[in-house]
Structure prediction request, 248 residues.
Amino acid sequence: MIKKMLDIDMDFFLDDIPYFITGNERLNEEYYTPWNEKEFRDFLENKCKLSKVQKIPGRIITHHDQAFDFWKELIGNGRMHLPFEVTHIDSHSDLGLGDGSWFHLATDFLHYPINERINFLPREKVMLSNYLAYTIACGWISKVNFVHQNDWDFNDFVSILLQEFNDESYNFEFKAFEKGLDAGKLVEEYRELAPVKTDSLVPYEIFRKDDFSADEKFDALVFCQSPQYTPASSDYMLGIIKEYIIEI
Prediction:
């Protein structure tokens, strides 16, 4: 039974953080240089406790919203324990900053009973920028461990999803507000409104690369290529990750 999920984006393994990327072209290696093979393997084996001898189930995906589909599949076939813990190794938090998904969550999706929400979720709402927020909103996650680069200094958490709108609370607190509110209302304006219902708290921690070390082996892994956020020269990692997983 899968209780601890390792969720890795290949854009983590670059010498710079790709922010505000538009279009679908691969990044230029002159500006975003991938780690070398030794660095990559050292991180997988020493930080993530992965082993080529004791492989774990895993899947390689192209775009990160496909992690949502993978987890839904594992839940559906009874392999995933609910709720499960996620360690999210990524240049971005994937909570929906900038895509407006918080409005759909706050004024529509969170009104449904948490155990039934997945039945009312249009798949097109789940995107690579917000899939983790929707996973939490479905009640599937017990805790999130975010692992970012040492120089990560762009807080892309959406305040409305946090306990008391506070990014130092270290808890997600998903809140439903009255339906029919103005879509142009700013996130900060919701501080003055009383939510009509509030989900249970979901804790999170934030680690930097040098401070992170898994305390035990993971039960499964998903590894995302994220082609628009990585140069083609990073793709050698796709072959290496296969050495550590049993593809499912």
